[in-house]
């Protein structure tokens, strides 16, 4: 499958962030729908986490929290709904024909320390406010550019571009790249 042009991706991301969805398609599908695959455990979840009235479905958020747990220690951590909102808006910009691949969500201090120099001791992963993600068929640079378009609308988000994935967090606006570093 061929990747869409970057301009199309950025326009779609901006439209999703602004809530510019055709009325007929808005009624045809849930407000937000996420599909996650955790590569370490191959656990998959498709969840509508917002109700029609715009409120959160706390059962769906609990299932997502389990998916975002520290899989090395099998411990759940906090999962702010704002992170899920951010990821859902990003996924909408690419459509729902492929899952977001979650490489890392919440981390315990021990797991974070075991990663070594690559992980900040003040990582937002420790607070459940970050996710390292990839999408099949989408280059990390294209994913980061779409995240940047969403960030411009929301006025927040840390975005780190790595060789095979993108780090996103709900902290203050920040950008960095670690392509080619071990």
Automatic annotation (TrEMBL):
Gene Ontology MF terms: metal ion binding; metallopeptidase activity
One biological process term in Gene Ontology: cell wall organization
Associated pathway: Cell wall biogenesis; cell wall polysaccharide biosynthesis
Cofactor(s) essential for the protein: Zn(2+)
InterPro entries: MepK, TAT_signal, Zn_M74/Hedgehog-like
Alphabetic keyword roster: Cell wall biogenesis/degradation, Hydrolase, Metal-binding, Metalloprotease, Protease, Signal, Zinc
Sequence similarity: Belongs to the peptidase M15 family.
UniProt-recorded name of the protein: Murein endopeptidase K
Organism per entry: Caldovatus sediminis
């Amino acid at each position: 499958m061929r990747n869409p042009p970057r301009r199309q991706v950025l326009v779609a991301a901006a439209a999703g962030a602004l809530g510019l969805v055709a009325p007929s398609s808005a009624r045809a599908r849930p407000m937000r729908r996420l599909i996650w695959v955790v590569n370490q455990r191959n656990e998959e979840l498709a969840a509508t986490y917002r109700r029609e009235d715009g409120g959160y479905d706390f059962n769906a958020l609990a299932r997502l929290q389990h998916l975002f747990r520290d899989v090395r220690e099998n411990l759940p951590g906090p999962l702010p709904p704002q992170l899920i909102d951010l990821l859902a808006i990003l996924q909408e910009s690419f459509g729902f024909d492929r899952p977001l691949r979650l490489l890392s969500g919440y981390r315990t201090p021990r797991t974070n320390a075991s990663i070594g120099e690559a992980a900040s001791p003040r990582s937002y992963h420790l607070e459940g406010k970050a996710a390292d993600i990839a999408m099949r068929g989408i280059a990390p640079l294209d994913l980061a550019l779409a995240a940047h378009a969403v960030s411009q609308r929301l006025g927040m988000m840390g975005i780190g571009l790595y060789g095979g994935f993108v780090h996103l967090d709900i902290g203050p606006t920040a950008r960095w790249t670690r392509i080619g570093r071990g």
